[in-house]
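Final report, Chapter 2: Outcomes

The project's central promise was a pipeline that accepts a single protein chain and returns its three-dimensional structure in a standardized token representation, suitable for archiving and comparison. That pipeline is now operational. To close this chapter, we reproduce one record exactly as it appears in the project archive, with the input sequence first and the structure output second.
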Amino acid sequence: MTPADFLRRVIAPGSMLLPGKFDSRPARALLLAIAGQETGWAVRHQIAGPAVSYYQFEAAGVFAVLNDAETTPLAEAACVACDIQPTVAAVIRAIEFHDALATVFARLTLWLDPAPLPELTDGADPAWQYYLRCWRPGKPDQSRWGACHSQACALA
């Protein structure tokens, strides 16, 4: 899938499941860059691993969103709107193919970070640091980030 298709087919529908304050150019750019970094906008299940969706969620990330005072009501409302039980197991099963719900959980994961989202004009490094804090990748590889971030900022 191209980054433009991902923005239109994955991020935009997911953004509609959250209140308007969650949708911004910085949020869309970071979500797009993270999915590009994690899967190249092409893989729904981690090879030889437990992570699912284009954002590569694991159960701990879903648990964090479902168990935070600020994000729980929003995540539960999105689950209800998508006819998915708001449990870790049900969400993990669903988000491999339910892109809008996966976007909700990705956006709420970013919301859990107390720092403001990096602006598009801040450059790739602040966005990379934000990604590292929120996703905590096991083997971070910054070699793809610059291109993913640049494409994301151009499209957001």
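Archive annotation: DSSP finds eight helices and no strands in the chain.
This record, like all others produced under the grant, will remain available to the consortium after the project formally closes.
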